[in-house]
Write a structure and sequence with these properties.
Pathway: Amino-acid biosynthesis; L-methionine biosynthesis via salvage pathway; S-methyl-5-thio-alpha-D-ribose 1-phosphate from S-methyl-5'-thioadenosine (hydrolase route): step 1/2. This protein is an alpha/beta fold. It is built from six helices and ten strands, in the order βαβββαβββαβαβαβα. It binds adenine.
């Protein structure tokens, strides 16, 4: 079994890469795919770049060229709910592309027109194993629910209110839903595990700089615990 691991930014993958026993690297679509062993598993780990297009291309390459059996997306995210704070973990059980908008045709916001699903549901077993990993890290606050993705760094209270009201989203980021979308089309089980770097409000870009290192540490800890038990 091969697990594809995707992060958007170098800083989200560097701890993991430092612990990986690397066997081979391949560059495709300007992304470096690192094949090797990590915490007892065969993995391909890759930094995809920011946004939905980069991440979808990356997930498709993992599917088509590396034939991965599962995909895990890790990294940081903006917290939407007031109870969620920097460093907390959010495990997605489903994802939606919040910037998809064909409402002028009568579709709901986020609905991809002519698609047979509204949200992309994460694999139940992967969600369970992420939950278990969080149970073993009791010092981390964990939330499970919907993550929404769009090609926007959200730093606006009105936008957060809308994302919460419209999608009941716990957190927002820029890649998870397009990775989920790609995995759905390729029938590959997936899960998205993020740690909060900011509250997607007016000071989000400052908090993002400050809290990304701790958020990366936390999301990597959960991934490690998960992989060690897989
Ligand atoms: N990733 C981390 N914080 C984010 C935010 N506020 N909006 C979008 N993606 C993010």
């Amino acid at each position: 079994m091969i697990i594809g691991i995707i992060a958007a930014m170098n800083e989200e993958l560097e701890i993991l890469l430092s612990e990986m026993s690397l066997e081979e690297t391949k560059v495709k679509a300007n992304m470096t795919f690192n094949k090797g062993k990590l915490w007892g598993n065969d993995v391909v780990a890759v930094v995809c770049g920011i946004g939905k297009v980069n991440s979808a291309i990356c997930a498709q390459i993992l599917a088509s060229e590396f034939q991965v059996d599962k995909v895990i997306n890790v990294g940081v995210a903006g917290g939407i709910s007031k109870e969620i704070h920097p460093g907390d973990i959010v495990i997605a059980d489903n994802l939606v592309e919040h910037d998809m908008d064909t409402t002028s045709f009568g579709d709901d916001p986020g609905q991809i027109p002519r698609m047979d699903t509204f949200d992309f549901k994460c694999d139940i077993e992967l969600v369970e194993s992420a939950k278990k990993a969080c149970d073993n890290n009791k010092d981390l606050n964990t939330f499970i629910g919907r993550i929404v993705s769009g090609d926007v760094f959200v730093a606006d209270i009105e936008k957060i209110k809308w994302l919460e009201k419209e999608f009941k989203a716990l957190s927002c980021e820029m890649e998870g839903a397009s990775i989920a979308h790609t995995c759905y089309l390729n029938n590959i089980p997936f899960v998205v595990i993020r740690s909060i770097s900011d509250n997607a409000n007016n000071g989000a870009h400052m908090d993002f700089q400050k809290f990304t290192p701790i958020a990366v540490k936390n999301s990597t800890a959960i991934l490690k615990e998960m992989l060690l038990n897989m």
